[in-house]
Write a structure and sequence with these properties.
The chain is of the alpha+beta class. The protein has five helices and five strands; from the N terminus they run αααβββααββ. The N terminus is likely disordered.
């Protein structure tokens, strides 16, 4: 991320993020299981040190919401950080970030390579983007709003790792 230019390009985004949080919390309060699953997800995010209470004022606030994925009898919740929401300058965080080439190999190349190798290994990387920390000076570009518990006021948090959905994430 390029923090100095962000000061001049990104507009205000806190009010929209707060409005979306209140709407989301209101919808969640009607579905107890989803509300608890979302709270558990966010608490895990915090306990794994992928976010922390903000120590500085944010430059860009990312709205977030939960998505439920039904897989037969099981439901899995995933929180989506919506980095494509425009700020008051009509620019999103993705609009001002550099886009680098994708480093992953194309799947067709990998499948062809299987024919020329004796052994192939596969792995599932859990929370892959959340394993990569961003520069501390860029924390202010990844702020979210969230109440730590139902009886707490909304607090400002900094996301400390790569956020999925960001343009440079695949790089």
């Amino acid at each position: 991320m390029n923090a100095p230019s962000l000061n001049h390009e990104l507009g205000e985004s806190r009010n929209l993020a707060l409005k979306r949080l209140y709407n989301f919390e209101q919808r969640l309060s009607k579905i107890a299981d989803l509300y608890d699953a979302n709270r558990k997800f966010m608490n895990e995010y915090f306990s794994l040190s992928h976010m922390k209470l903000a120590t500085r004022t944010g430059k860009y606030f990312i709205p977030h919401h939960a998505v439920v994925k039904q897989n037969g009898y099981l439901s899995k919740i995933r929180v989506v950080f919506d980095v494509s929401v425009p700020s008051s300058s009509c620019l999103t965080l993705n609009d001002v970030l550099c886009v680098d080439p994708k480093l992953q190999s194309d799947i067709s190349n990998l499948l062809l390579m299987c024919r020329t190798r004796k052994f192939m290994f596969t792995a599932d990387l859990v929370k892959i983007f959340r394993q990569i920390r961003i520069h501390e000076e860029d924390y202010t570009c990844q702020h979210i709003l969230w109440p730590q518990s139902p009886d707490h006021e909304v607090s400002e948090f900094e996301l400390l790792t790569i956020t999925y959905g960001l343009t440079p994430s695949p790089y």
